[in-house]
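Feature request, filed as a ticket because there's no other form

It would be nice if the structure record came with a short human-readable summary line next to the tokens. Right now we just get the raw output. Example of a typical job, pasted below so the devs can see what we mean:
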Amino acid sequence: MMSMAIPVKQASFDLNMAIEYLTQNNGLVKVGSEVDIYQELAGVAKCFEGRQTVLFERVKGQDYPVFTGLYWNRELLAGLFGCDGRRLPFLLRDAVQAWQQSPIHPVVVDRGPANKVVEPVVDLTGLPVPVHALQDGGAYFTCSVVIAKDPDTGVRNASVNRIMVTGKNRLAMLMDVGRHLRHYYERAEKAGKPLEITISNGVDPTVYMAAVVPAASAPIDKDELGIASHLLGRPLELLRSQIVAVEGVANAQFVIEGEILPGVREPEGPFAEVTGYYAERAPRWVVNVKAVTRRKKPVFHTLMPGKEVFNSVGIMGEANIFDMVSRQVPGVQGVHLTTGGCGFYHAVVQIAKQREGMQRNAILATFAAFPSLKQVTVVDEDVNIYDPDEVEWAMATRFRADKDILVIPDAFGHELNPCTRDGLTAKAGFDATTPYPRPDGFTRVSVKPVNIKDYHIE
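Raw output as currently delivered:
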């Protein structure tokens, strides 16, 4: 039975199988009432944020259901990989390391679930793409995987970008500075050529996770889709496209084929970004859509702003930070990218101090390992880094503002954070550890451990 096995290791694992697993394990609610993709769907989904995933079975004026919430509950997501939430970042890390050492390359097939139907006419308005937040500038693809090929080497890149529908065959998208897709495009644009892409919606979580691996772990000359192969335990299947020379994901729900046009910019935004604020409307890159294929009975997948974005970012970043910091600082026990820090801006590092000053080294190493960070808080091994109350307790009882704060002015920041000015921001590290060796006054109150199963309780 699938609920007893590891879902991602099952033959032909896909989003539909993930939904089935979540249904069997009380991880999904089904909304039978008709909902509107214009803001109402997001409003209903928000009521379940951080808990169960949501399947909207009846979407007003649309032919296909919509699924969301896959990435906002770490324990539910981890169940698909056969582990718990704390182990999940390291399971993903192990797959990245295995791929780096001995890659399992994807295979290309001519036919698959995602091209069972080839739409005779391109019309993106026929897809149930939601408008999420109240001030969003339009309908957005938020968790679709963009695949492109290096115009010089042909190496694939996979990424997740925000993409706004602007017409029946037209999209506007953001490409962040420093991302591999941006490098590909700028070289193509310089040569006066479009950059062909596919946009795969409704991929399984192994593909999504491969697409959000930090660039430090997936260099530009490597095809990170092989990471999904390692997570699956078999080569990922990619689908030969109808028109463009770039593949889509064979087990996706929809595949959109197109090209990012050279020298063309059109308005995109506002959009509810990872910061919890709206990204401004501005001229951005334009996709001309050439073909759309789909499953016979597809489910559109969308990612909600808020905890789902924060969590999906944090999962991939934590193990990477842990490894990089551990190489430089002994005694690191764990790393957590907090939800309150948007999964991008605040890391809590747990350390077993072996001498005074190591906590400051850990702060500096953590900033270097994840440049988007604005804050790093270091705590002792007796503090639960996943519990914000515990972290606040450590700050309230172990942190001294006159001695235990490290400020780094004019550091490189994340461009989407509104605190960043001309690419620069200030960063702060907080030492919430006890002195070393620990004085008696910092002995935590504790009680006798018991096994509650040994007691008769009504």
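Something like this underneath would help us a lot:
The chain has two domains: 2-307, 328-438.
The CA atoms of residues 348 and 385 lie 6 Å apart.
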